[in-house]
Amino acid sequence: MKNIYGKIYLMLGFSLAGTSVVTGSVLTERLSGRVITPISLGIMLICLFPFYGVRSIRTAARLKKRDLAVFTLQAGFGIVLFRLFLLTGVGLTSTVEAGILTGTTPAITSILAFLVLKETCHIWTVLGITSSVLGIILIQNSPQNLAAFSFNHVAGNLMVLCAAASESTFNIISRKYREEGNDTELRSVPPMIQMYLVSLIAFLLSLIPGFYKMPVASLSVIGWKEWLALGWYGLVVTALAFIFFFEGVRRSDAYTTAAFSGMIPLTSMLLSLYFLKEPIGLNQWAGGSFIILSMLLIGRQSQKRRQL
């Protein structure tokens, strides 16, 4: 039952995170990424302060320096760097490709689980990683890309891959420190409070680029659609998705977490088709299929481990 709940939480969390690609595409049309991250986080922190603000401050006061360092790493990789790379990449490549390429997160997470967590890497994981690489090659070599080849397009795809690597690093950090039995303070923090503290740290970190010509004046010219997107980015993509994620990762192993992170590209691709009406070529469908296959193969390893 614990494993079932863990999978449900992970599926919900990563599905909501997948909406960040389309939301980011809408926002980057009018706003810079240096504005989107702190403003969306600020909206979330203000709205949730009456519920979690005081409790989060009290919790932070009793945490060890090591625990706060873990939260800072989670905020840096899972929010600040992920959004910096993703928002930059979405502005340079297509939303469909950006969404599909976030599907490399399971493969990258599996590699890090093997290198950092010393978890056993079986043939299913190797096949999954290989399938993910094939998917990237197919997407990058699609006829649409070759017809309109540009350095910016390739750079955009590389930025999205960096975003996937940041998300993978966040997954590994979360799993590593949740597994340590002597880490009682960190393990006792409720997911809602952890979400709020991580978001608060991310907000402070995201203000650093703001000291360098942050175009805050651009907020005065955006419409209701952009403000709704900012609210969604903060309250749903960040708060709700992170709560589901923290609940799920407590009940799942690293490979299960890696497999379900593939819900991000699946959600973003479907939303791109429905809302943005972006076309998807044969190579992109094939590349996306290979990446989805990689999720299933990597997820199969976690099933095999439970049977042993």
TrEMBL record:
Keywords: Membrane, Transmembrane, Transmembrane helix
Pfam families in alphabetical order: EamA
Domain of life: Bacteria
Coiled-coil annotated spans: none
Boundaries of every EamA domain copy: 6-139, 156-299
Transmembrane regions: 34-54, 66-86, 98-117, 124-142, 154-173, 193-212, 227-246, 258-276, 282-299
Similarity comment: Belongs to the EamA transporter family.
PANTHER family linked: ACYL-MALONYL CONDENSING ENZYME-RELATED (PTHR22911), MOBA-LIKE NTP TRANSFERASE DOMAIN-CONTAINING PROTEIN (PTHR22911:SF79)
Protein name (database record): EamA family transporter
Provenance organism: Lacrimispora defluvii
